[in-house]
Specification:
The protein has helices at residues 45-48, 119-122, and strands at 14-22, 28-35, 54-60, 63-71, 78-85, 92-98, 103-107, 110-114, 130-137, 145-154. With 156 residues, it is mostly beta strands.
C-alpha cells in the first residue's frame, strides 16, 4: 500500500481542508498539508524539523495565530503568519489553496494569508507529496483535539 500523492503544479489548482477543534488553541500544534518526508521517529518531525519538501498550515504551540510553513528541497523552512487567531474549544475549518500560481491559507472561509515569498524558491512545485494531518499537545498534557474531516481536491 502506498500513500496517495499530489503535486502542486503551475497552472493546476489544489485545495486541502480540515475541520477540527482543540481545547487550548495557543497550547497546541495542529498542522496539515503535503510532504515527502516519510521516515521519521515522531510525526511532528513533519513540521518541527527541516523537511526535504513540505507545505503546511495550522497553529504552532504558544500562538493561536495561524501560519503556513514551506520548504523546497531542504533549502530551509519559511514561515509566514496569517491574520487570524483561532479560538479555543471552537470548531474551525482551515484550508490551503493553490490557484495555479499563488498559495493561500484560509480560516473559516476567510483568507488569512497569501504566501509572499518567491514561489519558485520556497514552494515544492511538481514534486510528489503525500498528505498529512498532525496534532501535538503543548504543556497541558490533557489538552484534547478533535478532527471532523479532511478534504482534498486536485486538478489533474
Amino acid at each position: 500500500y502506498l500513500p496517495k500523492v499530489y503535486q502542486i503544479n503551475t497552472g493546476k489548482k489544489f485545495f486541502m481542508e480540515i475541520r477540527f477543534q482543540t481545547e487550548v488553541a495557543d497550547d497546541t500544534d495542529v498542522q496539515f498539508g503535503l510532504t515527502d518526508l516519510t521516515a521519521t521517529t515522531n510525526p511532528e518531525d513533519l513540521w518541527t524539523t527541516t523537511a526535504a519538501n513540505v507545505v503546511s498550515f495550522g497553529v504552532l504551540d504558544g500562538d493561536a495565530t495561524v501560519g503556513m510553513l514551506s520548504d523546497k528541497s531542504n533549502s530551509g523552512t519559511s514561515v509566514q503568519l496569517g491574520t487570524i487567531d483561532l479560538v479555543s474549544a471552537t470548531w474551525h475549518t482551515l484550508a490551503i489553496g493553490w490557484d495555479g500560481a499563488q498559495l493561500t491559507g484560509w480560516v473559516d472561509g476567510q483568507r488569512a494569508l497569501v504566501w509572499s515569498s518567491a514561489v519558485s524558491t520556497t514552494v515544492p512545485l511538481a514534486t510528489q507529496l503525500a498528505p498529512f494531518v498532525g496534532f501535538r499537545n503543548g504543556s497541558t498534557a490533557n489538552n484534547e483535539g478533535q478532527l471532523d474531516y479532511v478534504r482534498i481536491v486536485s486538478e489533474r
